[in-house]
Design brief:
257 residues; alpha/beta; Rossmann fold; 7-stranded mixed sheet; 49% helix; globular; binds S-adenosylmethionine
């Protein structure tokens, strides 16, 4: 944590900090807070140590938005590493670039659909590809694209109610899987091409209270990783691996097979 972050963290009353940590450990459910960011920086530090103990880490984050959890973890533990993000939304891309400026990590935020990220990075060049609470965003963007809703040049949070409406409709009509799965699996296939042979794709999900309050279907919000796990079973060249201390309901680790 930087000095100003530490001051902000300590200004949150301790019982409040503990209750946020309890909620993210037990349910896991969160609201936007530095406590949650710090929690996930520590979790990703653990992921990265398990996946790639060497200092020469090359990391690609998908659908980062402007969340700097992973580059912050890398700045502490892998200061000489390289962090790439593939992020489509223009405003969030700019914001992430601003937040990560000055970190002792080589940061490149690529404003691009992750499905086309191989235009920017060589094959078999990445150690870890991570989705930090980004799987739902990728699925939502796939649906928006089908509906002609722009998620690139708009304010993501202002578009969120419309996205939730589309997700509700797709779940209600039982068309969610057929409309999302092929595009998601082809994105994963493209990502696999970028991964080194001993690399990992890591997906992390948890629930935001805000999305539930705005009507996100709990059947998807709570079961996102098990649903996606089922889809990946038909993907050639990949196998699931398990990492101690990471609940498979909320974390998915995929290795090249
Ligand atoms: C709300 S932000 C993500 C927040 C973050 N991952 C978190 O910690 O919750 C959603 C971002 O996902 C991006 N996104 C969705 N699908 C994408 C794709 N296929 N390729 C790149 N970025 C994508 C959007 O452009 C947007 O910037």
């Amino acid at each position: 944590m930087s000095g100003s972050e530490l001051r902000e963290y300590l200004s949150i009353p301790e019982p409040e900090r503990l209750s946020q940590v309890k909620a993210i450990l037990e349910k896991p459910i969160a609201r936007f807070s530095l406590v949650i960011d710090v929690f996930f920086r520590a979790r990703w530090a653990e992921v990265l140590h398990a996946a790639h103990p060497g200092q020469d880490l090359v990391m690609l984050e998908i659908a980062s938005g402007d969340t700097d959890v992973i580059p912050q973890a890398m700045a502490r533990d892998y200061p000489h590493s390289r962090y790439f993000a593939a992020n489509m939304n223009r405003l969030l891309t700019e914001s992430l670039r601003a937040k990560t400026r000055g970190l002792p990590v080589d940061v490149v935020v690529i404003e691009e659909d992750a499905a086309a990220i191989q235009r920017h990075l060589p094959a078999e060049s990445v150690d870890v590809i991570g989705f930090q609470h980004g799987v739902n965003d990728v699925l939502q963007a796939i649906l928006c694209d089908r509906d002609g809703v722009d998620t690139t040049n708009t304010d993501w949070m202002k578009t969120l109610p419309k996205m939730i409406e589309i997700v509700q409709r797709e779940i209600g009509q039982n068309t969610f899987e057929q409309n999302v799965r092929p595009a998601f699996l082809s994105l994963l296939e493209a990502l696999l091409g970028l991964l080194k042979n001993d690399g990992l794709i890591v997906m992390s999900h948890y629930m935001f209270q805000l999305d539930l309050d705005w009507g996100y279907p709990p059947v998807l919000w709570e079961e996102l990783i098990p649903i996606v796990r089922g889809w990946t079973r038909s993907l050639p060249g990949v196998r699931e691996v398990f990492v101690d201390g990471f609940d498979p309901h909320w974390w998915l680790f995929l290795a090249k097979s």
